[in-house]
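Reproducibility note. Readers wishing to regenerate the assembly model reported in the main text can use the exact inputs given here. Chain order matters: entities are listed in the order in which they were concatenated for prediction.
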Amino acid sequence: MKKHAITLTVNGEERDLLVSSNRTLLDALRDDLGYTDTKYGCGTGECGACTILVDGMTTINGCLTLAATMNGKSITTAAGLARNGHLHPVQEAFIENDAIQCGFCTPGMVLKTISLLDENPAPTEAEIRHGLEGNICRCTGYTKIVEAVQDASRRISGSNTSAMGE
Amino acid sequence: MSSRVMRDFELLLPESIEETIALLARHKDKSAVLAGGTDLLVALKFDYAIDNVISLALVPGLDELDFDSAKGLTIGAKVTIAEVLRSQDVKDHYPALWQAAKVFATPQLRNTATVLGNILRASPAGDCSAALYATGGSLLLKNANGCRNVDLDDFWISYGVTARRADELAVSLHVPAPEKGQKSAFRRMTRTTEDLSKINAAVCLQMTGETCRKARVVMGCVGPTLLRLPKVEKILEGAAVTPDLLRDISNVVISEIAPIDDQRSSAEYRNKVAGVLVKRVIEAALNAKGDDQ
Ligand SMILES: Cc1cc2nc3c(=O)[nH]c(=O)nc-3n(C[C@H](O)[C@H](O)[C@H](O)COP(=O)(O)OP(=O)(O)OC[C@H]3O[C@@H](n4cnc5c(N)ncnc54)[C@H](O)[C@@H]3O)c2cc1C
Ligand code: FES
Ligand code: FES
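Running the prediction on these inputs yields the following C-alpha cells for the assembly.
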C-alpha cells in the first residue's frame, strides 16, 4: 500500500516522516518519532492515555487518528511542556498533590488538564470531573487528581502564566 | 488485527467535494468515507475490512454550522460534536441536540466525532441521531449525477444500514426552524458517562399553553434502529400534558419497543425503565432548564 510523506511539528520541532495508510498518530509518535510519553492503553478511544494537543489546545486521541491525515499539524505531547528546565505548573501540581501512582495515565491527564484550564481557568469539581471523563486512571481513584487540577488552577491564575506555561 | 494495529487499506485524501464524489463513483462499495473516524477506525481494528478509505480531512466546504431563525439549522459533514456543544444557537433553539452533545462520549472524542458520522453509522444507540430524529431533519446526499435530500424519517433502514447509496457523500443535514412553542429534550442512561447509551430518548413537542399540538417521540437501544413511538405521539397530540397523561404514556411505551439482551443491558431492564425515561424526557422538555442532565 502507498506510503504518505508528512511533516508534523512535535513539541516545536519539525519532523518529516513516511507513514503507511493505517498508521495511527499514536504509533507514529511513539515508534517512528520516539515520543513514548504518549501511551497506548485501550486503542479504542476510551482511556485517554494517548491524549495529545493539536494546533493549540484541542485534545484528541492519537489511537483513533490516522497519522497521514495530520500533515502540517502542530502537536504537543507531555514531553514538550517543560520550559527552561522547569516543569509546567500542571505537572508540578500533579507531583505535589500525589496525583501520580504508576504514572501511566499522567501524560494524558496533564494534557487534558491544560486544555481544560485554558477553556475554564477556575473549574468547579463537577466541571473537572466532566472534563476528565475521557481519561481513566486505574491507580489513584481520582480524588488526588481532582485536587491537583484545583491546585494547578490556582497556580496558573496566581502566576499570570498562560495555560501553556509561557 | 487488534486494538492497536488496523487492517491495511488505501487512504485517499481528496481536496474538494467534487474529487471526493469522483472517488466514491470509482470505488463505490469498495470504499468508506472517513469523517472523525471514531466509529470507522475502531471497526477497522476489529471486524471490518475495506479497500479504500476516503478521508474528508482536506476537503473544504463541509464545516458549516449555521442557524437562521427562518431557515433553520445546517450542519456540515465535518461539524464535530464539540462545535455543536459550543453553539449558543443550538443550545437556545435545539436543546435536545445540545443535551445529546453534552453527554456524548468524552471531550477528546467530541473534538473529532461528527454529527453526520453519528447519523451515517446508523446505530440504534446514536445520541445526536436520536435528538435529531425527534426534531426532524433531512440529509443532503451528493453523487456524480447530482443531489437528493433524504428525510431522517426514511434514512435508517436497519442496524447499520441506511438509504445512502455507496457512491453518495453526505454533505450536510438540514434541521427545520423551530416552530413557536417548540420544546425538546434528550435523556439517556449509561453505566459510565463515557459508555454508549444502554437506552436513550428524545422528544420534540409543539406546545400551545399546556396543550401539545404535535409530538415526535424517539427511543434508542430498543430495536434495530432508533424508533419513533407513534402511539405515544398520538396520545400527546391535542392533549393537555398532565401527570395522569404522563402515567398513561409511560404504560404504553412498552408496547412500542422491542429491546434485546446485549453487552450493555438486558431486554428486561430496558422494558422496565423505558416508560419512566419517556416520562422524564417529556417533563424535561416542558420544564426546560437548559443545560441540566
Ligand atoms: C469510546 C467511544 C465512545 C462513544 N460514545 C458515544 C456516545 O456517547 N454516543 C454516541 O452516539 N456515539 C458514541 N460513540 C460512537 C461514535 O463516536 C459516533 O457515532 C460518532 O458520531 C461517529 O462520527 P465520526 O465522525 O467519528 O464517524 P466516522 O467513524 O468517520 O464514520 C462513521 C460512519 O459514517 C460514514 N460516514 C461518515 N461521514 C460520512 C459522510 N459525510 N458521507 C458518507 N458517509 C459518512 C463512515 O463511512 C462510517 O461508516 C462512541 C465511540 C467511541 C469509540
Ligand atoms: S489508547 Fe487511545 S484512548 Fe485509550
Ligand atoms: S497513576 Fe496509574 S493509571 Fe493513573
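We highlight two features of this model. Residues 182-288 of chain B form a domain with the Enolase-like; domain 1 fold (CATH 3.30.390.50). Chain B has a mean pLDDT of 95.
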